[in-house]
Amino acid sequence: MNWKESLRNKVLIKQQKKSKRDHRIDALRGLALIMMYIDHIPENLLNRFTMRNVGFADAAEIFVLLAGYASWLAYGRRIPLDGFWKICKRIFARCWKIYLFQIGLVLITLFSIYQWRRIWILPVDFLEPELAHGHSILRVFWRLLLLDALPSNLNILPLYIILLAFFPILYLIMKYRWWLALGISFLLWGWVNLDPWFNFPNWLDPDGWFFNPLAWQFLFTLGIYGSILAGKHEGDFPYFVWLQGLAIAYLIFSFLEAFPWGYWGLPDLRLIELHTPAKAYLSPLRLMDVIAIFYLVQSSKWTKQFSENKVGQLLALYGRHSLEVFSLSTVFDLWGRLMFVSWGQSVFLQLGINCIAIYILYLLSLYLDKKRQRLRNINLRSQ
């Protein structure tokens, strides 16, 4: 056995000792996916009970933070075992898969809307004017392929592609000096907050990409660093009473400011009057909100226990297959909006749309989980 194989075995043994899966990540991501599905139908009654009503941040921030966290687990920890360039190939393959899902969602969206218009009347602005009529799609199709045109509700997968594509560079800087990686990422995020026009172009929106990658990369980087930090403490964040107190205090403030008091006919309990924190470039209030939530989740033994009970495992089932679940939920979001616009928003229709969609997403997750287990068993038998 040469020294390279010896090093590989030592690293493998070290990681196997920490191989017990932390279901908190999957459960939190599963909850975020369900809330994203609910929130993306504007008239959905259930979106009055999602986290965007009780704080500055919403499920999108959770999703991106966990994307960074999971990227380190899936790729960063494997580089010492499999080599840098081999992992880069895996990352490229993942980006390509996400890109194909994005193009598939665009095509399904356009086809669904064009076919729906043939039977029912839709508002002219239901889709961007540039894509509202079939004859114009040929002129902009190349822009859709190059991600230069991002329709509404189809903008988070392109963000994920950009962030994941830059993971190898972040890895190299993080391994050299973690504080340097965080510092560069923070400065770039700060620059965008001072100048929101610093953004990727979007032919359908003069403001650029709705999720500005130059700002949201900071949340992704924080997720990577959080994964490294948790790995040094058996999957948990270091527990500090004073830090938990600060996180809880901030979330109480966030709740008081964000809760729709007037909608529920309750007295306004806001401490100060604030404008809605910008989501496009991840304003500081939203950033601190999601950081506080994640610290409490990853530093609490109670959340770990919750993630291992029946409800937590059900949520984790969704979270283990985030790309497929998110993509199918996006299609259901579109169809739900089409039905609401054409058929009204009765309680019966709303219950049907929500229950049927979430159940089908469960069946998809269950199928993918069993398929993954079968492949894992086959690989074990072949070794």
Describe the protein in words.
The protein has helices spanning 3-17, 23-39, 59-74, 79-82, 84-117, 134-145, 156-165, 167-176, 178-194, 213-231, 241-258, 284-298, 301-307, 310-319, 322-343, 347-382. With 383 residues, it is mainly alpha-helical. The chain contains 16 helices and no strands.
**Strand runs, count:** 0
Number of helices: 16
Gyration radius over CA: 22 Å
- Taking all residues together, what is the mean pLDDT? 90
Helix share bin: 55-70%
Terminal Cα span: 19 Å
Quaternary structure: single chain
Summarize the structure.
The protein is mostly helical and 383 residues long.
How would you describe this structure in keywords?
about 0% strand, single chain, 16 helices, about 375 residues, mainly alpha
Strand-helix topology:
Elements: H1 3-17, H2 23-39, H3 59-74, H4 79-82, H5 84-117, H6 134-145, H7 156-165, H8 167-176, H9 178-194, H10 213-231, H11 241-258, H12 284-298, H13 301-307, H14 310-319, H15 322-343, H16 347-382
Helix pairs in contact: 2-3, 2-13, 2-14, 2-15, 3-7, 3-10, 5-7, 5-15, 8-9, 9-10, 11-12, 14-16, 15-16
